[in-house]
Amino acid sequence: MSYDIKNKIRNIIDGIELDDNAEARMLHSIRDKAALKNKKSELTESRSARVTKWAVSAVACLAVFLIGTIVIKGGFLNTVDTPAVTLNKEKGEGSCVTDANEPAPEGIIEGSFPTTVGHSDTVAEQSSETVVTDAGLIGDGSYFESFPESFGEGFGGNLILVGESITDGDAALYFEENYLDIRDSLSESGVPTEELYICENGYCHVSISAESGQSEIRQNSRDYLVYSGDELVAIVNLYMENGSISNNIMFGASWFDDYRLYLEQHKGEELLYLYAGMTQIIIAPDDSLFNPMGYDVSEYFSAIDDRYELFYNENVIYTP
Amino acid sequence: MLKSTLRTDADFEAFYKKYWKYVLKLCLSYMKNQTEAEDVASDVFVKILSDTVVFNDELHERKWLTVVSINMCKNRLKSKKRRIFASIEDRQDLSVSEIGMQNDILDAVMGLPVKYKDVIWLYYYEGYKTHEIAALLKRPPSTVRGQIRDARNLLKKILGGDLS
Lengths: 320, 164
Prior knowledge:
A: alpha+beta, 5-stranded antiparallel sheet, 6 helices, B: mainly alpha
């Protein structure tokens, strides 16, 4: 008995007759699950908002412990600090262990601390979650507010820090522990991982709260660029919740090359990151705007003078 | 980051209509249980709704769905949820004939260990080369070739014929 197994398997699988109701049943299930997921997401959002409100109202009695008011360019910053993570800080902020087998390339992106973050058996007390997918994103997505019709009076100025802070030091520890998983996830997804390194300095984004219209910085969500050689191959978003860091990895985006070129053209400049709706906008110190996806976003800022000054905060600054 | 490229209900429904059968069949081959296969398959589509997924082309879409489906099935097979489901509902795996797969080859394929199912599906059904499968599954190419060879030998034993 001889089989052309390839064709047979294809023919058989293609010919499987599925339950007539399966399509509708699954669609119904998808909608239910998606709605549930959205609800959970909204709960997370509202929890963040509650933390903010609570912290702001506690200024009078707990200012020393909970809220520091820091004068920043363009206004005041209310820092809502909700420390909830215990991390091994012995190595200090920004220090990463370089994988001895894969020396970090030098001088590829000036000032971006090109580093191959190695794996360490010294595990800090934190959880990690790397969901392996094949393209686009590894992990759960980030959530942005809807695109405001226009920025103008009322936006900027008072930037509120929301959520549990992730520092570059926290990130370095996280990457030490999870570098191999991240690299393997990318590799499994067909992303080149030769000379892979994760930039040590990350950045948060200014966003506009749909609830309050207030400009805020979600300091529990921080992006890190990932290069293979001199190619930008992914962006790892670290997200801190209840003391645990999880990651979302975006890769394979068609606009990565344009973004990389932009960063090269702005070497040494303090770039400011902002989310408007689902779109990331970068403001250069000369107030010029850049949207990595190529959208013209200038109209949204037409009413704002000195937008760089207005939104400036060190949490949302990345210097390539 | 840009959220899913499936921005509207119409986008998603078109995507779903295009791929639901493929994803469900793939999940069925792993889960061997209609209810669980549908559950995992629907999770795959929920993931695409909630994730930041940017596809370059149709090939990319299919590759993403294949790998995500396989990973989700494997995770489910290992998961607590499955064990609980099994103990509570006295889960009975369906035979292939019960889910419309009345064929000895596929019956044999479905009976193979998961590691062989991966390579069989990707190599025979999807037509990937061994080095592509190695990259997708993060296994050395020699291991993938060995697994394909072992799977073929197992099928040969089960089916008692020559596999060309």
